[in-house]
Amino acid sequence: MMQSGYLETLEELELFIKKAKKVKPTKLYLNFSVSYRSNIPDSIGDISSLEHLCFQEHPRFVDEISAKIGKLSRLKILQLYDFELLEYLPESIGRLKNLEELYIADCFRLKEIPSSIGKLTNLRRLELMGSRSSLAGLEKLPDTIGQLTSLEELVINDTAIRSLPETVANLSNLTYLKITSNRELHQLPDSIGKLKGLTHLMLENGYLSSLPESIGELQNLKDLNIKNNFLQSLPESIGNLSQLLNLELTNNQLTQLPESIGNLTKLENLEIINNQLTQLPESIGNLSGLKYDICVYANPINSLPLESFLLSISKLPVKVLRG
Asked: What is the pLDDT of residues 65-98, one digit of tens each?
């Protein structure tokens, strides 16, 4: 691995790249301390040995990345962090045929992901994240994202995205999908039900008002986290998630749970704290796989309820705690 000190001028960056060309590192970490507009020069594409390139610390005044980055044919991991002035990525990123992981974080002004991203047929993990600052300029994803058929993990956090392209249905190898803290995203596309390989769907800390019925088609889903959203109801189809182990619904606006929830016989954990539930469905007594108590704290429960229900929950391996 080769790591720079804090580069203060373009000349220092050029000299460091020249040195890297001689050393031929497979991993390169670049740190910056620049207080004026600058760019990533063409020479970055000449470090042909690179498999891992990380722009790691404070490239916030860099407003352009050279298209020559597309020459890094061996590159497997690319990390772009903290480019506060960067509005566009070069289309040449699509030439990185061996790229397996792409991380884009805290690029406040980034307006779009280039359509050429669909050419990254070996990409397995894609993260678009706000951490210290949001991706507030990123309002949509290209339809070509559906061409990433090797993609296994997709993270979309703290962006301005308003909707997901229907083409996400084509991500046939996707197992992990995390969509969190996206203020303008209030619904998921119906096509999400076509992600048959999905095992983890993380939607916490969002602004979702509903879930599509097609969510019940995710037959391999084991973990569904929807806490801290604005859901008022769940689709009946949720009872079709026969492999589900974990269901987190805390901090929503749910007024009831569907009877079909009782079909989730493999469920080990159910979290429903702080909703608007006035009662629980009798079918909840069928959740024989539960390993943790069901807490109904901060719900206006007015009946825990009929004798038949009390008999039903008496068969549960856990307690229902009202607080």
From this structure: 999 999 999 999 999 998 888 999 999 999 999 9
Residue 270 domain-assigned (yes or no): yes
Residue 40 within any structural domain of the chain: no
Q: Is residue 85 part of a domain?
A: no
**Considering the domain boundaries, does residue 50 fall inside one?**
no
Nearest to 90 by CA among 105, 118, 60, 70: 70
pLDDT attached to residue 280: 87
How far is residue 110's CA from residue 303's CA, in Å, rounded to a whole number?
A: 51
End-to-end Cα spacing for the chain: 54
* Average pLDDT value for residue range 261-269: 97
Burial of 315 (0-12, 13-18, 19+ CB in 10 A): exposed
Q: Range of 291's domain?
A: 186-323
Could you tell me if 107 and 131 are in contact, meaning their C-beta atoms sit under 8 angstroms apart? no
- Global pTM exceeds 0.85: yes
Which residues, other chains included, contact 233 with Cβ-Cβ below 8 Å and sequence gap of 6+?
A: 210, 254, 255, 256, 258
Q: What is the pLDDT of residues 206-225, one digit of tens each?
A: 999 999 999 999 999 999 99
State the Rg of the chain over Cα: 24
Q: How confident is the model at residue 6 (pLDDT cuts 50, 70, 90)?
A: confident
Quick check: 281 and 257 in contact, CB under 8 A? yes
Phi, psi of 145, rounded to the nearest 5 degrees: -60, -25
* Residue 20 in tokens: 């890297």
Place of tokens 């909707």: 163
Instruction: Look up residue 40 and give its two tokens.
Output: 């990533």
CATH classification at residue 239: 3.80.10.10
Q: How confident is the model at residue 303 (pLDDT cuts 50, 70, 90)?
A: low
- Count of domains for the chain: 1
